[in-house]
Description:
By secondary structure, this protein is an alpha/beta fold.
Amino acid sequence: MDLLKGKNAVIFGVANDKSIAYAISKAFKENGATLGFTYAGEALKKRVEPISEELNGAFCLQCDVSKDEDIALTVEVAKEKFGKVDILVHSVAFAPQEALKGRFVDTPRDAFKIALDISAYSLVALCKAYEPIFSQNASVITLTYYGSVKVVQNYNVMGVAKAALESSVRYLANDLGGNGVRVNAISAGPIKTLAASGISGFRTILSQIEERAPLKRNVTQEDVAKAALFLCSDLSNGVTGDVLYVDSGYNILGL
Ligand code: 0WD
């Protein structure tokens, strides 16, 4: 398929080949998009550079999304290489490990600030920085999780950060919509990635889904990538400010 033919995409949040953003990048490449990659810090360079090479990346830049100057540099390079950006993928989250277990009420002020800054504010900062070079009908997507709307044990401050992220999606969609730019979130079911390994009891969550979700299985990175393809292609032209669940239907369950 060629759903993204001629489109330029900048990807934030590839850490390795298990990352959701990697599966999204692969699907985008297969559908004709040209990709530009960023990675959080020097430690990830050796993992992300080979991925950029594999998928023919137009650039591969270090960018800590908590630093405005790092973001600005990616905008400069994207402008130089692409002119306009059609797709921005935000697949980034972080909270200090100690905040991802125990009681939420014990969350230190600093951990709260860091989690909200990296996991939610960064989407606002990216939209602001890229706004001048977004094409007409550009699409922005971010990744969220059900812990934003219901209490999920140990997800704690990350649930609060995801709630802020989902609300930001709505406000950003409203602000950018006048120029045709769409902003949406995918709420993915649990998937075993580097970020997920930081959450205590993650294996129990996975087996709960297999047992209870309507589809009786966990979702894969590829399931999420296909939804991303929909949200970043013209197939979803009329969709913005939305949270699309890709979770085997788990979120619809009551008792
Ligand atoms: O079950 C899951 N895996 C789910 C993940 C379910 C639902 C949602 N998500 C979300 C995550 O919360 C995140 O927003 O999907 C997004 C991608 O997560 P992932 O693919 O599961 O995990 P991973 O491969 O670790 O990618 C997240 C990356 C970071 O990886 P590490 O593990 O090194 O922290 O976010 C990036 C980094 O590459 N990241 C940053 N990027 C730029 N600046 C920063 C930063 N300051 N901090 C983390």
